């Protein structure tokens, strides 16, 4: 029953805590922790701990077990502190290092410490990309897990909208993992681009990927971009935007972006329509945007004012007259630099794959 199970849990917890009491006392010593953080040489750090603080490296195995135990009990902040201590001492070559990285990320996500969780995502990515894990299939599996776990961070961190684009679209290893293992992630990449006005330059690359994967994965969000930027089918885009609202509303990661998504999707329809037509009927625009004519006119007025578009409204005729909109030289430069960066990384990865050693020992994941 629950009472006997609780007694077992408490007893086991007590045994684990006693086995790492020395480590806990070190963690509670501010001077010792500060000195540890300042020491860069792992050998000197181990000497300091063993000679001055009665520490033994063997204690760390029990510390990892205790951290996992605390994690399962829901004590995520305690878990992160234990795993942080472990990572201060042990090198990345240690047998438990990858498991500890995953455990640390899981705990930070559940504790909603998004800044620290982002740091852990980057550490995991660097570790996975460093070619110290087993064979190519195993590395692909690790990247696939990281892609999914990172969604929690990217859709809660202030810089997440930019970082998800950089990682999923412009890191060839991760784009390849998405295309191979989890094309459904394109939904989140597409949504991030749609709500991020400052990254409109990435649309060209995103749409290309969506087209390549359209035979394996489609949803209203990816189809919205296809209708708008490949087929220039504004009626189809309008219909897909309605479907997108249902998808976003029912998606765990996207629901908080619902209003922003709809606003930016309408803006994309408006901008694309205006590139094709010099003089546009407000009534026609209202129809394309799924809005009433008077609401659409007010929306367009605010858009012209806030976005500083080169456009005028003729209220008598009910027209929007567009001026010239030359491409920004800065934006052109950014696009070219991003393209060169992608090509350079692709070449680097090709060379790495040819030099990479195979048939290494597999690594298991214990955090879930």
Automatic annotation (TrEMBL):
GO terms for cellular component: eukaryotic translation initiation factor 3 complex. GO terms for molecular function: translation initiation factor activity. It comes from the Eukaryota. Residues 154-327 form the PCI domain. Keywords: Cytoplasm, Initiation factor, Protein biosynthesis. SUPFAM superfamilies: Winged helix' DNA-binding domain. HAMAP family: eIF3e. PANTHER family: EUKARYOTIC TRANSLATION INITIATION FACTOR 3 SUBUNIT E (PTHR10317). Component of the eukaryotic translation initiation factor 3 (eIF-3) complex. The eIF-3 complex interacts with pix. Interacts with mxt. This is PCI domain-containing protein. It comes from Bracon brevicornis.
């Amino acid at each position: 029953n629950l009472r006997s199970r609780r007694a077992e849990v408490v007893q086991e917890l007590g045994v684990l805590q006693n086995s790492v009491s020395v480590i806990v006392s070190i963690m509670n010593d501010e001077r010792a922790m500060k000195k540890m953080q300042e020491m860069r040489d792992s050998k000197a750090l181990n000497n300091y701990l063993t000679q001055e603080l009665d520490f033994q490296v063997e204690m760390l195995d029990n510390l990892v077990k205790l951290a996992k135990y605390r994690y399962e009990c829901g004590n995520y902040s305690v878990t992160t502190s234990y795993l942080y201590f472990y990572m201060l001492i042990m090198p990345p070559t240690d047998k438990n290092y990858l498991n500890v990285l995953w455990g640390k990320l899981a705990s930070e996500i559940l504790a909603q410490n998004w800044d620290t969780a982002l740091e852990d995502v980057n550490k995991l990515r660097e570790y996975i990309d460093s070619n110290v894990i087993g064979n190519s299939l195993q590395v692909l599996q690790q990247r696939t897990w990281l892609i999914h776990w990172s969604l929690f961070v990217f859709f809660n961190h202030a810089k997440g909208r930019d970082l998800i684009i950089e990682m999923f679209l412009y890191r060839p290893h991760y784009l390849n993992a998405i295309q191979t293992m989890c094309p459904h992630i394109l939904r989140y990449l597409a949504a991030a681009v749609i709500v991020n006005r400052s990254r409109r330059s990435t649309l060209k690359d995103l749409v290309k990927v969506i087209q390549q994967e359209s035979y394996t994965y489609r949803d209203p969000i990816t189809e919205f971009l296809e209708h708008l930027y490949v087929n220039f089918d504004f009626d189809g885009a309008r219909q897909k935007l309605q479907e997108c609202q249902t998808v976003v509303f029912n998606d765990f990661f996207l629901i908080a972006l619902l209003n922003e998504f709809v606003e930016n999707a309408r803006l994309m329809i408006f901008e694309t329509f205006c590139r094709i037509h010099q003089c546009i009927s407000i009534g026609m625009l209202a129809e394309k945007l799924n809005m009433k004519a008077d609401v659409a006119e007010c929306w367009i007025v605010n858009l012209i004012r806030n976005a500083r578009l080169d456009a005028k409204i003729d209220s008598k005729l009910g027209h929007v007259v567009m001026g010239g909109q030359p491409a920004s030289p800065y934006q052109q430069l950014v696009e070219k630099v991003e393209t060169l960066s992608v090509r350079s990384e692709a070449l680097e990865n090709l060379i790495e794959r040819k030099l990479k050693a195979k048939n290494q020992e597999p690594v298991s994941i214990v955090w879930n």
